[in-house]
UniProtKB/TrEMBL annotation:
Any Pfam family matching the protein: 7tm_1
Taxonomic lineage from the root: Eukaryota, Metazoa, Chordata, Craniata, Vertebrata
Topology in membrane: Multi-pass membrane protein
Top-level division of the source organism's lineage: Eukaryota
Name of the featured protein: OPSP protein
C-alpha cells in the first residue's frame, strides 16, 4: 500500500517535470524511470521495516484475514509510529500530488492563453484527470487512515473488525484503479494501446 501511495506521488511529480520541461522527453532513457521505482520502494521499505525492529508491530487486521500494523495497541511506541506513517506515507505523498498537479495545471493554463483552441481542450483533459486522481486517492486512502487513527486513538472496541473491512479493501485495491484512470483519461496512453 505504501509503495502505491509513494508511486502516485513520484508519478505526479515526474508527470509535472515531463510536461513542463523545456526539452522533449527521451523515451529511450530509463534512468528516471528506474530512479522513481527505486525511490518508491526504498522509501516504502524504510517506513515498513521499523515494526520488524521493535517500533510498533504487525498483527492481524480487521477480521484477521490480512496483516497490518497493530492499530489497536495504545502504547506510545505504537502511537508514534502510526502518527509518522500518517504524516510521511499519506499526508506528504498527498501534498506532493496536489502540488505537482496544481503546478501542471498552472503551466497548461499559461500555454492555453497562447494557443486558445488546443490548449483549452488539453487543459480540460488534464483537469479531469487530476480531479479524478485526487478524488480516487482520497476515497481509497482517507477511510483507511481514518479507521486506523480512530482505532489507535479512540476508545477500545470503537472500530469493529467488520467496520474495518471496507476501508482496508478500498486502500489495498487502489493499485488497480490508478492504471485504469491513466489508461482512460490519458490520450497518449489510450492511443498507444
Amino acid at each position: 500500500g505504501i509503495v502505491s501511495l509513494v508511486s502516485l506521488a513520484v508519478l505526479s511529480y515526474e508527470r509535472y517535470c515531463t510536461m513542463t520541461g523545456a526539452t522533449e522527453a527521451d523515451t529511450t532513457n530509463y534512468r528516471k524511470t528506474w530512479t522513481g521505482i527505486v525511490l518508491s520502494w526504498t522509501y516504502s521499505l524504510a517506513w515498513t521495516a521499523p515494526p520488524l525492529f521493535g517500533w510498533s508491530s504487525y498483527g492481524p487486521e480487521g477480521p484477521g484475514t490480512t496483516c497490518s500494523v497493530n492499530w489497536h495497541s495504545k502504547d506510545i511506541n505504537n502511537a508514534s509510529y502510526i502518527i509518522c506513517l500518517f504524516i510521511f506515507c499519506l499526508v506528504i505523498p498527498f501534498v506532493i500530488i496536489v502540488y505537482s498537479y496544481g503546478k501542471l495545471l498552472c503551466a497548461i493554463r499559461q500555454v492555453s492563453g497562447i494557443n486558445k483552441g488546443m490548449g483549452r481542450t488539453r487543459e480540460q483533459r488534464v483537469l479531469i484527470m487530476v480531479v479524478v486522481m485526487v478524488i480516487c486517492f482520497l476515497l481509497c486512502w482517507l477511510p483507511y487512515a481514518t479507521v486506523a487513527l480512530i482505532a489507535t486513538f479512540g476508545k477500545p472496541g470503537l472500530i469493529t473488525p467488520a467496520a474495518s473491512i471496507i476501508p482496508s479493501i478500498l486502500a489495498k485495491s487502489s493499485t488497480v484503479y490508478n492504471p485504469i484512470i491513466y489508461i482512460f483519461l490519458n490520450k497518449q496512453v489510450s492511443k498507444t494501446l
